[in-house]
Amino acid sequence: MAAYDYIRETTNQDFGTDLPANGLNRIHKVQRSINFETACAALKASVDFATGDVLKIIDIPAYTWVVAVFAETTTASDAIDDIDIGDETQTAGWVDDVDVSATEDDNSLDSVSYGLANAGGKLYSTADTIDIKINTDGASDDGVLKVTALMVDVS
Fold it and tell me: Model confidence over 57-81: pLDDT tens digits?
């Protein structure tokens, strides 16, 4: 299993944080669209991701309450069947078993660990990232997944 920093490596930028500067509006929607073929080429400079690989996709600054995470497969994958969305503590804490082989939506509003039904989201007192863990991978990487996080700055 390898970990890849999708945030910086595919954009050639260091965003520092995905949240806008502090101000009166402390509720933010942060969205990242991941093209697995492009990401694989940029991050590994080889053929494909492997089962168990982790992509860091959204920065979470310290003192941020992540309320919910949503996943939308906008282009189905012929190779990657199943992923989890979580963080460093729990790889499937936000969304478990996202099927990226079909265009569909999934979210953390139901029974996952950090979901609203169970925990009301998660408060991060230290900086972290929202990550994708690849559970099953085929011969080539393709497909596009859009991940959206609803976050509140509580600093």
Answer: 999 999 999 999 999 999 888 878 8
How far apart CA 53 and CA 2 sit, in angstroms, is 5
Q: Where exactly are the structural domains of the chain? A: 3-13+27-153
Helix (H, G, I), strand (E, B) or coil at 40: helix
Residue 45, class by beta-carbon neighbours within 10 Å (0-12 exposed, 13-18 middle, 19+ buried)? Answer: exposed
Q: How far apart are CA 78 and CA 117, in angstroms?
A: 32
Across the chain, the runs of DSSP E, i.e. the strands, are: 3-5, 27-35, 54-60, 64-75, 82-86, 95-99, 105-107, 122-124, 128-136, 144-153
Distance (Å, whole) CA 4 – CA 30: 19
Contacts (Cβ under 8 Å, ≥6 apart) of 23: none
Tell me: domain 3-13+27-153, CATH 2.60.120, correct?
yes
Q: pTM (2 decimals)?
A: 0.81
pLDDT value at residue 16: 46
C-beta separation of 64 from 153 below 8 A = yes
